[in-house]
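Q: Predict the assembly, please.
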Amino acid sequence: MIKFDDVSKTYSGGFLALKQVSFELATGEMAFLTGHSGAGKSTLLKLISLMEKPNTGQIYINNQNITRVKYQQIPFVRRGIGMIFQNHNLLNDRTVFDNVALPLIIEGYGQKDIRKRVDAALDKVHLSSKLKCYPKMLSGGEQQRVGIARAIVNKPPILLADEPTGNLDPKLSLDIITLFEEFNAMGVSVLIATHDLGLIARMRYRTLTLKQGTMITDGITQSKPTPTNNNRFIGQD
Amino acid sequence: MFTDNPEHKKWSQRILLIPLRHLQQAIGSLGDLWRTPLASLMTIFVLGISLTLPATLELFVKNASQVTANWNSAAEITLFLDLSTTDKSAQSLVTRISLYPEVAKVQYISAADALKEFKQLSGFGDALNYLASNPLPATILVTPTERASQVIAAQALLEKLQQEREVKQGKLDLEWLTRLQTMAKFVSDIVLSIALLLCLSVVLIIGNTIRLAIVSQKDAIAIMKLVGATDQFIQRPFLYTGMWYGVFGGIIAIIVVTLLAQFLTLSMTNLAALYDSQFTLQNLSLNEALLLFAIAIGLGLLGSYISVKQHIRAIEPTAD
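A: Predicted assembly structure:
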């Protein structure tokens, strides 16, 4: 679903953000992406969401090589990725309903379909009662859930989350991660970038660690082995 | 449940929704204008007034050309007959010419009459009695019909008249007619240049207004791009905004031009009365009003299109 093949990214000015990164996130897999600030996490996410282009290497999203995708094609690639941000990126002058409906409106769904799907998405994040609220009227955790509802409303095969628990307390963080697990159980590939190492340790999922632009570990970060269905160990190549 | 794609939806159903969505976005853009009434009104008035000026000038050119059309009877052709022409053959020529379809009026001045007139006007008086014979030719003054009095038609008529056996020389006083028409052309060229300049400024003003709207929506546009909106989708409301500026600016221009013409008619009627003339100023015709309206909408759309093409693509989402 997401595949990096020897990808390097140098920003203008010569800063080498990613060095020959290769990994693959299979369909229905859930993984964490971690690393210190400046390790290249953001760059990796920007490459997946087509905000940046790699200098060398190939990137595949939903089996499509996006390395040389045309400007006009970018929106269509993005529709296959549900993106969730630390700062929620909601439209503050629109209601929760309108925010969640945005991807559907963009794709040209009918009014009835939109209502049905938005209701379902808000129901999943337990915000059905906040339909007519504006983002500013919600708490941080609620806003984050609106962002998640928007990311899943058009049922993309990939969910990408950038520090989704950044400003939340541990209890709320766990709620959010539990939501991701639910979507993952439905077959969605989930990649979560976070520096919340405690959270990662508790979750026992595959973890990709970046250090100074290089992928240093690709495996399960955990204190003691507790095998579950989702766990997979993939050693470094 | 995550497998059903929008592509699987019935295409017919989605295509049917397109006009509905456009209507929704058009109304949405109208709502956006309504939310900032003062700024919107200012832009609308700039557009309206910018179009009023050339439209009013055009109205004047139209009326002026109608007035000058009446003056064309002055385009008179003078035919000097051969000295050997007898009075009788001259009379028959006059009859023939008066049958021309292009000719409205023919006046014959015999050689004797011409000499008499010359005696009176020249001041040579009796001195002319010493001439052995009358040196002046008989003259025919031909007034072409209104249609044949245009420069080219009058010229053609002159050539035709010169073919007549008795005519030695024909003269058409084209100079002032040409001057008048050149003058009229010059004035309408000025109007055209002013109109073009004002249209350009309208496009720039609308473009700048739309640019400010885009900049103020920068974050929202970045978010829309992130969730997969195409540039076409994002630019549509701005194009509709430009269209609405055109619609309202056009309406204002039509109203102002009409009122202005009516106001000027009052004072012009008074002026015309002093000259014993029955002059009425023609107002905008329906076609002209529609043209003005279409131009306003076109300029609104053009201004917003240029702005949208430049600025929407430049906005790129960032992860921060």
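The CA atoms of residues 140 and 168 of chain A lie 7 Å apart. Strands of chain A lie at 2-10, 16-25, 30-34, 56-61, 64-65, 81-84, 158-162, 189-193, 206-211, 214-220.
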